[in-house]
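Z., the sequence and structure:
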Amino acid sequence: MFDGNDSRNITPPLLKCTDVPQFTALQFAASTFRNDPKLHLRHLLSDSNRCLSLMAVHVTTQEFEQGQNTTVDTTTPVLLPGPLRTKSSGAQRRIILDFSRQHVTGETMELLFDLADRMGLTERMNEMRSGYNINFTERTAVMHHVLRMPSGYDFQSRHPQGNTILGDVHSVLERIEKFAEERRRGNIRGCTGKEIKNIVCIGIGGSFAGPQAVYEALRGDAFAAEAAAKGERTIRFVANVDPVDFDLNTKDLSPEETLIIVTSKSFNTPETLQNTSMARKWLMKHLCAQSDVDNEDLRDLQIITKHFCAVTLDVNAAESFGIHKDNIFPMWDWVGGRFSVWSAAGMLPLSLHFSFDVMKSFLAGGHDIDEHFFDAPLGGNIPVLLGLLGVWNSTFMGYHTRALLPYSHALRKFPSLVQKFDMESNGKRVTAAGMPLSFQAGEIDFGEAGSNGQHSFYQLLHQGRTVPADFIGFMESQSSIVDEEYTTNDTGSLDGWDGEVNISGHDKLMSNFFAQPDALAYGKSLSDLVQEDVPENLRQHKVFPGNRPSSSILMTKLDAFAVGQLLAIYEHRTAVQGFIWGINSFDQFGTEIGKVLAKGVRAQLNASRRRGASVQGFNSSSGFLLEAYLSHRR
């Protein structure tokens, strides 16, 4: 087994992006965009040549999906009119990125590509691809893309232990496939002989957010849903240390039919251990009385063996808890928790629920984008383009917040997942070499599935702060509902929409996907309102400045393969921004400081509850709040 290699250590880049002339040139370009009314998006969008040049298309062949080849057809912006205007044959899927509504021209993009070149973007990408230790502070590689490589892929040519690493990955995948299918068939049952139908996943951070987001994305997919329906399966996710989370997720489950999956890289994450302890007590309480084993210790061990499994780097700690070694699936130090959904952390529970075949397609979609990211020219490279636009908007245009707006109910958890790994990765104050930054890195990510978000924060997007947005839409719906059931042939409308426009529910959803970016870009001027005879006292209230930047991503359909593609795109976008800023996107020391202070608070609460000790060692504000908390129901 590969356990890391110090020979893969490299020196962090010393060059700061603020020290190169391209940075100054981009600052000047941003100033021009902010001050020149001719560069308002309503004018830029009238240039069809510019619009076509600011698009990229990635095409995946059916052969690649089926694992028959290892290359994909990626077009560059120069060749866009053909694939954009050609009717899809159904044998290939497309991802179209339209960034013509961003505050950029061809010249701006050239400056961004020059900055990327000066900051060694291609070199950084190749170091990541080849498994060098680009997490400089922790001296580890960043190889979650390896988890997505198919068996037999040539990783050895890039890493001296490539065959060993990929062999380890597929050894675990084979174990997951066997483990999942045996339980899905009912061959291995709980300690009372009942079939395992419920999965409770205990973890926090990426090991919670990743599997949950993918689960929600696949619930509506016909193939995945059919696989999950076999056996009436249920899957739940518990992360919060608040006991309410565990209670709500387990109160309607039968312990006899429940498997607990504990995911913790270190197997000492406080929140996860607390919930694992609760799960253990919950199982013991309900199952011990039904066990035919008299010895209490043996009875406990039997229950843990049949109803617990673990995903962890520390196999010994999991065994010490009582989990059988056959039920422990390893992680590696070269997989960050926020990218761990591709490992057993995601593949195990989701294969149990949806089947291994469904989840293999998820891995294949991620690998498809890996090949695109590492091999496509930068000018047509979708993750690179998104990353450069993120740098442009936040560092040069001064937009420090961005919205992710998927027009798919299935992706309602996707924005929070991207928020998790992007803000944890790029919220840094120093370069990878430890030098303070002269600008604020990272962005505040948020979002909501359309069209729900339109009735929430779109008011701010249109008339408040400028927030760059990514719109994500699909040519096909996951839903199999027959739209004719919800339409009417008379002149009225039964569904609250215009009765004369008889289109499907998916078309109604997508009409917003197409309209909102234009509304943000064009806005509505005072003269428009005068021409519309809007009362004078309302005109200023109804002015929309427009000029709000956005990108649109249009994909063929949302299934396991596409979920893998989409997640990999945004993971790589995060890496690109970190490479350009010259930071280490792969450590997360900011997540630890509060946890350390919480240890002292827990010690104080324990002393006060048990011995009546007074609150000491805190500032006056915290001390006052602790006293108020402890005095309640004293």
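Residues 146 and 166 are 7 Å apart (CA to CA). The chain has 25 helices and twelve strands.

Let me know what you think.
H.
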